[in-house]
Amino acid sequence: MKSLSFRLLLFNILLLFLPMGSLLYLDTYERQLLSSQEASMIQQGRLLGSALSAPDSSGLEKEALRILRNLDERVDARLRVVDTNGKLLADSATIFPADTRVSPEPSSKVPSSKSLEVFSEPAPNARLLYRIAVFPVNVIRRLFIPPSNYSTAEFYSGQQVLLGPEIKSALEGRYGSTTRYSTGGQVSVTLYSAIPVFAEGSSGASGDVIGAVLVSRSSYGILRNLYQLRLDIIKIFCVAIAVSLCLSLLHSLTITRPLKKLKAEAENILDTSLKFSGHFRGLRRKDEIGDLSRSLAALSEKLEKRSVFIETFVSDLYHELKNPLTAIRGQAELSIASPQKDDALLAGIQSEEHRMERLLAQLRELSSIDSGLENKKREIIDMAEFIPLLLKRYTRADGNLIFTDNAADKAQVFINPDTLTQVLTNPIDNAVSFSPPGGKIIITLDAEENFWRLTIDDEGPGIIEGSGTRYFERFYSERPSEERAGHSGLGLAIVKAICESEGGSSSLENRQGGGARFTLHLKISVCSQK
User: Residues 217, 140: one domain?
Assistant: First the structure.
């Protein structure tokens, strides 16, 4: 049960880890944001480069300062203008008033622009929960992903001549870009884009380049948003883990506890002598476990009944076989002691031997019926036609047998013909044997719900009041001792076993006016209902 509970919990948690693991890698989203940021930087640089209208580099500085002041912090990147020698002419970070905000290049010694983002709260990636969650990912990245070969953002720090590779490309009339690691304790990069500035009246690769616009911006703002998104996902994941634990515990209690209870009942159902000492009580649950418990309860009940049947059967068999064996032994001893052959003793031995054979045959038949091992060929039989043919075997000396058919239609049953013969002849034989000479035996066939009801009324002495069910017990008989030689007391027990195996029933009671009434209920064939 512990294994089942653990696997259930593990399954629920794995369902959460799969999307969690994929969401921790937001590289695609990050690349899209960086691409959008670079496109924005290029657009701002091109607009500034197009707005600069100096005829040569000598008037470029004055025009650049004028335009940057007019922008008045309407840009979200750091803009710098250099001449053809890389000399810094204008810088948006020095034109705009200083403040306490984070610079796009944290290591720069110049104040930042007011247009940059303000981060007054601690970074999400500094939170303990975030560091714990991404620690395994960082370890994997350090082990399997080689670091990028970037220079640092200190490349232009404190310099007045800017001649990085991206600026050189721009001064040659081409677009230039590069990426450098941000410093100052920030885990981010700074993007640099350089756009050439052409002399007034010229454009394109064929024009004269009089300078370059350098646009730079740190990716820290993007990463901060990604960190916040990851932190939110981690929080949701932690809540989901807590909910998953509670649900797993609830499911474990609703699944494993009933199974443990069934296991305990199964282990205690038999005692050390392999006898039934308990049974499955079944659960009131309406799910599959409840169905299983009820099936086990029904199975244990059937096994217990079968066990009781075997015990009583063996006990009854012992007592019934003991009498003829005792008689055979006594007569055999007399025959041995007698000096002459005694035909009467030999006849008695032969009679008892035949009685034992008959008794064993009926016991074998009864056991076969109770065990459900009968597999005889069945067919549809109309009892309204079958019973009159069966009654022809009886003579007038057996009594006046009268059959009354009250069935509105064919009284069809689906049964083996020999089995039906046995079911009918045993109670009829009893009625004949207990009726006075010439007495009436009335056999009536009626329809009753899903059964055919057959009653056999005789004019005999009836049965002992209150002992109707005892007549169906094995070896029980109310006949005088001198008449029991040809009767084993198993006839009605066999009839009852057959009726119950066919889904019917049998009963015996006294009827008004004297005599006994035997009643049989046999299932109506489905074919007769169509």
Answer: yes
Is 228 inside any structural domain? no
3-state secondary structure at position 192: strand
Q: Is 260 contained in some domain? A: no
Of the listed ranges 119-128, 196-205, 229-238, 313-322, the one predicted with least confidence = 313-322
CA distances from 159 to 156, 190, 404, 405, 489 (A): 6, 17, 126, 123, 123
Rg of the chain's alpha carbons, rounded to an integer?
53
Question: Among the three residues 319, 349, 370, which one is the final residue of a domain in this structure?
Answer: 370
Instruction: Read off the pLDDT of residues 494-515 as tens digits, 9 standing for 90 and up.
Output: 788 888 878 888 888 888 878 8
Residues 51, 375: Cα–Cα separation, whole Å = 104
Q: What span, in angstroms and rounded, lies between the C-alpha atoms of 68 and 88?
A: 14
Average pLDDT, the chain: 75
Q: Say if residue 63 is in the same domain as residue 202.
A: yes
- CA 212 to each of CA 53, 204, 269: distance values in angstroms, whole numbers, following the listed order: 13, 13, 93
Residue of 253, 246, 282 lying closest to 266 (CA atoms): 282
- Report d(CA 80, CA 86) in Å as an integer: 11
The answer to the question of residue 3 being in a domain is: no
Q: Which residue has the tokens 């076969």?
A: 368
Are 154 and 206 members of one domain? yes
In this structure, what token pair is assigned to residue 186? 């920030």
Judge if 142 and 46 occupy the same domain. Answer: yes
Q: Structural domain tally of the chain?
A: 3
Q: Which domain holds residue 196?
A: 30-222
Distance from C-alpha of 334 to C-alpha of 42, rounded to nearest angstrom? 131
Pairing, β 151-152 against β 176-181: parallel
Q: What is the pLDDT of residues 270-286, one digit of tens each?
A: 776 666 766 677 677 77
Closest alpha carbon to 207 in 39, 84, 86:
84
If asked whether residues 63 and 192 sit together in one domain, one would say yes
User: What pLDDT was estimated at residue 265?
Assistant: 77
**pLDDT for the residue numbered 214:** 93
Which amino acid belongs to residue 124?
Answer: P
In a domain, 192, yes or no: yes
Q: What is the 3-state secondary structure (H, E, C) of 246-266?
A: HHHHHHHHHHHHHHHHHHHHH
Q: Quick one: 318 and 446 in the same domain? A: no
